[in-house]
Amino acid sequence: MNSTHINLGSFTGWSYHQAGHLVAAALRGADPATRIRLDQLMEPGYCGEAGAPFIAFAGPWAERACGAADVEIVHGDDAFDPAALSARCGDRDVVDEASSQVATLLRHVGADEDRAWGWLPGVTAAWNGELAQAWPAIEWAAGQLRADLELSVAQVRSRLAAA
Q1: Partners of 66 in the β-ladder
Q2: How open is the CA angle 82-83-85, to the nearest 5 degrees?
Q3: d(CA 61, CA 125)
Q4: Distance CA 79, CA 98 (A)
Q5: Torsions phi, psi for 36 (to 5 deg)
Q6: C-beta neighbour count of 117 within 10 angstroms
Q7: What per-residue confidence (pLDDT) applies to 112?
Q8: Among candidates 61, 42, 51, which has minimal Cα distance to 132?
Q9: What is the 3-state secondary structure (H, E, C) of 72-112?
Q10: What is the CA radius of gyration of the chain?
Q11: Which helix (H) or strand (E) holds 54?
Q12: Residue pLDDT, tens place only, 28-46
């Protein structure tokens, strides 16, 4: 985590943003000792490269889901729109890079341009479903972050297991 002073904007929105990242990290196997505070930014690779796009997606998703976001991260039929993702902590860059890598790989194995990018709506729908199912934990984590200002992956995993 990068311990830097940030402009929190909407305190509620930012708590949901950070809670989304933290719950997603717990779902993707982050170290239980990983902790986050509202005044820190999560570094994209701390949970491993494979989980980074989902974790990056989850922050703006949770902020939008609580009604405090100033951006939309999905449009149409749940197609992911990396250009509209919140850039506050580099989320757009992480998801954009992963999207480009997958599309490039698919092109190398013979996929045309439509097929190279055609996987995005399905992945977005799956991520939306996974995060919607974890919504009670995200709400809890956002409240804890606002009250205690720090929360760990271990605490989130305990909450997810109790649900």
Answers
A1: none
A2: 65
A3: 12
A4: 15
A5: -140, 150
A6: 18
A7: 81
A8: 61
A9: CCEECCCEECHHHCCCCCCHHHHHHHHHHHHHHHHHHCCCC
A10: 15
A11: helix 52-65
A12: 988 898 888 887 766 555 6
